[in-house]
Queue: 2 jobs
Job 1
Amino acid sequence: TTAPTYDNILLSNPAPGVTLITLNRPKALNALSSPLFTELNAALRDAATDDSVGAVVLTGSDKAFAAGADIKEMMNKEFAEVYKSDFLAHWTEVTKFRKPIVAAVSGYALGGGCELAMMCDIILASPTAVFGQPEINLGVIPGAGGTQRLTHAIGKSRAMEIVLTGKNFSAQDAAAWGLVSRVVEEGSVVDEAVKVAGQIAKKGRVAVQSAKEGVNAAYELSLNEGLHVERRLFHQLFATNDQKIGMKAFAEKKKPEWTHK
Ligand code: CO8
């Protein structure tokens, strides 16, 4: 089978079990157009069904992770059209991907770019990363999670200030507020993200998927319901080979060889 070719993204395999997806519209600072998202979704669908893929890294360029939804694509649209076609609803497909995605953010992550990073499971930032939800300056508001995921991540008062003023915030602020897990050395964000994804890809896939499902349940459910989901996920792992393999390897002081079953 030949690998699909894309116009707006680049695909590579920088470490065992890791797919690196690079947003590649350099002239538009990786503005997120509908075709770009169609390609990103297709690449994730392939990664979802490819058993050799354990985790994905999503990145942009040094200058821009993504400077937002493509304003030029949106500017002349009318209400009836965006409403009837559920414009940009296909963005949320990223959140249906069940393997971990690590976002490696350098430069601008604005508007839909910030929202796309927040759809990922882990965000690592270069010191040059600039985050923001500037939609208010365009006469609109965030439409792909900026009012919701940002509020969950950094709290109401900060999210309100960001969303209502449209002012950007730094990688350092993003780390201090818990939006990103850490700021890494300049120039190393993709390598660091590949390292994290590579570590994840070495674990048993069923446990990894269960862990992601469990943490995500914390965003949707009450504490009791979330704990219930967690216990069910935990119990079900006792039906896997990998639980037997992992615990036996520990007891025998060996390295586990996961079967992903
Ligand atoms: N859309 C389209 N083109 C863009 C975008 C964008 N978001 N951002 C940059 N570009 C283009 C510029 O138009 C320019 O093109 P050209 O060379 O043809 O003029 C090229 O990229 C380079 O940009 P600049 O010359 O502006 O570069 P600077 O370094 O001077 O500035 C900035 C960089 C500050 C990032 C600036 O480009 C900027 O402010 N961009 C717009 C940021 C923004 O407002 N983003 C939010 C967009 S709205 C949004 O994301 C809503 C999401 C809703 C999702 C809904 C799902 C249901």
Job 2
Amino acid sequence: MADPPLALLAEVTHRCPLRCPYCSNPLELERAAGELTTEEWRRLLGEAAALGVLQVHFSGGEPMARRDLASLIAAASEHGLYSNLITSGTLGGERELKEFADAGLRHVQLSFQDVDPANNDRIAGLSGAHEKKTKFAAAVHATGLPLTVNMVVHRQNLDGIGEMIDRARALGARRLEIAHVQYYAWALANRAALLPSRRQLDEATRIVDAARETLKGILTIDYVVPDYYGVRPKSCMSGWGRRFLNVTPSGKILPCHAAESLPGIDFPSARDHTLADIWYRSEAFNRYRGTDWMAEPCRSCDRREVDWGGCRCQAFLLAGDAGRTDPVCALSPDHGVIETALQDAEKTPEGFVYRHFS
Ligand code: SF4
Ligand code: FES
């Protein structure tokens, strides 16, 4: 019997004013008409709390594109769930944040594309985005909600990492998450333009290590080296169906945000099944749970219950089979695809291919 889930990522909409070239949403986006209704979300959040979920992360797309977001936060709060808002900060401001805080919101995570306004707006595909985000950070501060600044980094902004740390402090953040792009969906299509070089990565890591020392007790910095440069994979989602579940805008329940890219798996909908049924009994959640599904080299590896064989979606995207060892593992027979990608990262960067919602 699996343990209950700890956290739920609520992708309340795919609508978003930004067009980031590393967007992790699926290539096929959900239309507004297909989204779960307020009542459906309220029921689902109640089921999640009964199942044992402790935290809900409201995300998207841009979650503030939903006019009923305050009602959803209130529902989470009524069920005793800790709620976090993950936003681009480009829709709304102090009035909405005050409403969310009154509804029980506990934390805001605000993403930036860069500290440099022109580069931020170029990457986001939206002019004026940086200015809106800066005002939004001030509004978070005014409401008294704790703020985490999320800087998404890659080869076209990584050299500004020192300024990013300074900016997070200036914006009043308690925590800075420096998140290297992960190569799924649009990010995989733009990988040659996004993957940093070894020189860039080493310099960025040196700056972060030094800042962590000098800012101890002032600013917490989360920073993980991208797995393409590691020798063992990340424990993606802490293992398939072990801790997290992800709800798509139309109510499909997934073990991770990218799972719909995997063929041959029927992901159940909260419209047709209870969350408990899906979590404990669905074929989708049991397919890669635990270690029974593993082949060699994972099956006999002493890290099989540490990283759970890495990421199933990355294994499918890079090796064509979600049941294979994640190719970022140096023990994987498919590891050559990573070495080729890293060699390409030393070449001249390419332009971005932007996503469009329409
Ligand atoms: Fe992890 Fe499998 Fe690599 Fe071992 S062989 S480190 S379990 S991915
Ligand atoms: Fe799907 Fe890693 S993103 S298992």
